[in-house]
Amino acid sequence: MANLSQKAFGWAATDTSGVLSPFHFSRRENGADDVTIKILYCGICHSDLHTAKNEWGFTKYPVVPGHEIVGLVTKTGSNVESFKVGDRVGVGVLVGSCRTCDICQQDLENYCRKMIFTYNSTDKDGTRTYGGYSDIIVVDQHFVLRFPDNLPSDAGAPLLCAGITVYSPMKYYGMTEPGKHLGVAGLGGLGHVAVKFGKAFGLKVTVISTSPKKEAEAINKLGADAFLVSSDPVQLKAAMGTMDFIIDTIAAVHPLAPLLDLLKMNGKLVTVGLPDKPLELPIFPLVLGRKLVGGSDIGGMKETQEMLDFCGKHGITADIELIRMDYINTALERVSKSDVRYRFVIDVGNSLASL
């Protein structure tokens, strides 16, 4: 077993109520390939809520959520050459993989069957992984990211999950061709970043939402070209067959048929939201329009770094509401109601004093 000698402090959920409370624990001592990071900021992802409440069925309590982490390097191992003490770095959804399989060799560690999640996972030394709702974290250097100088730590943190979750499928499925028409279904933490990426890639972007009150913000603030109310049959009919791609970020159970109808022939619907129940997939519109339904899950380390650098170059950040750690349970309650524009970020460095 590892030498768990670094005292750590965070907030953990201990049962399916999902309520978090102060939690003292230990992290491993920094190894030769490790980087110890003082956490400054951590974004709140919908996955944190699902996991805290065991809605996906594989939570092991106690669980310290958080996988959108930005902080400062405080210690480096003897083999670490890419990072030095004082560097600003990021840690995303994964902190380990086998590094040897075909998938890892393609820089797609996020699909490795032995992937180790930043929290609620078993590390290679047999210990539990605890996430970023805490003061420090120790991570193998391969899974640490350089944070571009011009990217703010707080508004940049959500890019480590929300950002790469939409960037990766946009690159893989060819949603980068200027002039093509992208629909973004759901305007939350993922969706609002997808709009910004779409515009940076030169696409025409239409936001598809159940909430008419988000229209002004989508167009005036985020730069979307158009807004479609998905519960309005007149609007849906007018937009049928107009989109090349739709990226579906909706985390709740919802009908796919209206989205498929919006696609042109050869259109692609790519889903990145993770509803807790299966969705119904109508086959007729796929067959009659040669359409494709796909999925995607974050990205590997190389692509995540590429995404961060792209955001630095184009000035892309998340729109955030900065909170203190003791607001966490209220924040998670608001996440469950989609009551945030568009991502909570915990000011860990300034609010996580040991209780």
Automatic annotation (TrEMBL):
* InterPro entries tied to this protein: ADH-like_C, ADH-like_N, ADH_Zn_CS, CAD-like, ER, GroES-like_sf, NAD(P)-bd_dom_sf
Query: Keyword annotations for this protein?
Result: Metal-binding, Oxidoreductase, Zinc
Q: Which domain of life is it from?
A: Eukaryota
Q: Which SUPFAM superfamilies does this one have?
A: GroES-like, NAD(P)-binding Rossmann-fold domains
Q: Which residues form a coiled coil?
A: none
Q: Which CDD domains match?
A: CAD1 (cd05283)
One GO BP on record is: lignin biosynthetic process
**Gene Ontology MF annotations:** oxidoreductase activity, acting on the CH-OH group of donors, NAD or NADP as acceptor; zinc ion binding
Q: Does the keyword Lipoprotein apply?
A: no
One of its Pfam families is ADH_zinc_N
* Enoyl reductase (ER) domain mapped to chain residues: 18-346
**Known cofactor(s):** Zn(2+)
UniProt similarity note = Belongs to the zinc-containing alcohol dehydrogenase family.
**Annotated protein name in UniProt:** Probable mannitol dehydrogenase
Species classification: Eukaryota, Viridiplantae, Streptophyta, Embryophyta, Tracheophyta
